[in-house]
Amino acid sequence: MTVNPYQNRSNGAHTRLSSQTMAFVLAGGRGSRLEELTDRRAKPAVHFGGKSRIIDFPLSNALNSGIRKMAVATQYKAHSLIRHLQRGWNFFRAERNEYLDILPASQRVEESKWYLGTADAVTQNIDIVDDYDVKYVIVLAGDHVYKMDYEIMLRQHVETGADVTVGCLTVPREEGSSFGIMHVDDRGRIVDFLEKPADPPGTPEDPDSALASMGIYVFDWSFLRDLLLLDADDTSSRHDFGYDLIPAIVRGGNAYAHRFSESCVMTGLETEPYWRDVGTIDSFWQANIDLTEFIPALDLYDNAWPIWTYAELTPPAKFIHDDDGRRGQAIQSLISGDCIISGSDVRNSLLFTGGRVHSYSSLDHVVLLPYVEVARGAQLSRCVIDSRVSVPEGLVVGEDPEEDEKWFRRTPGGIVLVTQPMLDRRSAALER
Q: Is 187 exposed, middle or buried (0-12, 13-18, 19+ CB in 10 A)?
């Protein structure tokens, strides 16, 4: 495991940097590669892991790191995200100097001006950040799954005297062309920023690895505030951190990379730092199914670093019937509360809250989002079923690619997404 030079330097609780920090979470994007899963919700509001939403991961990291001042900027179809935040993240107490503000794009600057880019989302809320009276701001993407102690990154930022510290993920060099890549010197200073380069540079210690931006940035607020105001007056700017602000700071020579391996939270069960952009149907399905492994790559059973979320009051999961061919059972699967497995066989699957799986049906490598009802005799494999879908009796998904593509969305990886409008169109066509 990488030795973290900042981890053992105890500054004392009274100088903990997280207490002087605000987390600004960018959660306005649709995430169009998730196709119909984001027709009704923004990507950060998509369900993950049985009972959470994707946005719970950066927010939980901030809370567990000691940050008690947060803001979430929303834009695209934000209702379900805002409702989740109001229900699951309403425990902050202003009298204890704790805040979580929800900042929808609301034409605060001009009547025709929504959030124009990630940097502009912060610019339009400068007055709100000023009111927090913080020294540091950590800018977070709201749509990635990982566990990270931001306090360690903050310490590095202060000790290096950086203008910006960029969270970086170590990836195989041949995969670097899919990311924004940081070229660093042997001190960790970023000497060049390359957006999806054809030939990514290696790291000083390993020419076969590259450093990819995680979309996590630490700034001194006074520095960032001035930079945002300059950017707002630049008519040629996209007003985006990745395209405009970070490259400009890199050119100025005082940007530093922070390695995710130095602050990733692991319990001992994980074998390597875990970070996922669940931005496609294939990656979303795989990340959820990975949780069903005997030793999953991401440990959600870590009480020392919990993933906070809206905890619905639900009865326990229930398994009924014990006859040959009609036995309610689940093997190597995660079954959430209020699920009833009635005389059906569930394997290598993840069922969210409120699932109903009726007799003689089978699920194999299925991600079943909340409140789905699977009727008798359905045979489902390698698929994602959207929330509140009613799967009809005898439906077969995942066995015949041509039949799946006729009615549903089938990905290049062979994963099938099923939504209620798709089933309604299928039903109407078969009735004609």
A: exposed
Among 372, 357, 362, which residue's Cα sits nearest to residue 417? 372
Interacting residues of 68 by C-beta distance below 8 A, sequence separation 6+: 19, 92, 96, 97, 98, 99
Query: CA nearest 287: which of 295, 275, 270?
Result: 275
Residue 237, annotated as binding a ligand: no
Cα separation, 298 vs 270, whole angstroms:
6
Beta bridge partners of 363: 346, 380
CB atoms within 10 A of CB 239: 21
- Taking residue 400's Cβ as centre, other Cβ atoms within 10 Å add up to 10
Which residue, among 117, 134, 1, 124, has the nearest Cα to 68 in the 3D structure? 134
Least confident of 93-97, 213-217, 262-266: 93-97
- Tens digits of residue pLDDT in 289-342: 999 999 999 999 999 999 999 988 999 999 999 999 999 999 999 999 999 999
Q: Known binder of ligand: residue 195?
A: yes
Whether 132 has a binding-site annotation, put simply, is: no
- The two tokens of residue 395 are 């439906």
Q: What is the pLDDT of residues 73-122, one digit of tens each?
A: 998 888 989 999 999 999 999 889 899 999 988 655 555 567 888 999 99
Name the residue among 286, 336, 287, 308 with its Cα closest to residue 50.
336
Q: Sort strands 350-351 and 373-374 into parallel, antiparallel or unpaired.
A: unpaired
* Non-local CB neighbours of 230 within 8 Å, separated by 6+ positions: none
Contacting residues for 399 by C-beta, under 8 A, at least 6 apart: 379, 381
pLDDT at 107 (0 to 100) = 58
The per-residue DSSP string of 282-324 comes to HHHHHHHHHTTSSS-SS----TTS---------PPPEEE-EET
Q: Which amino acid is at 388?
A: R
Quick check: 251 pLDDT over 60?
yes
Q: Which residues contact 62 (CB under 8 A, 6 or more apart)?
A: 23, 25, 70, 138, 140, 150
- Nearest-angstrom CA–CA distance, 61 and 265: 9
One-letter amino acid of 235:
T
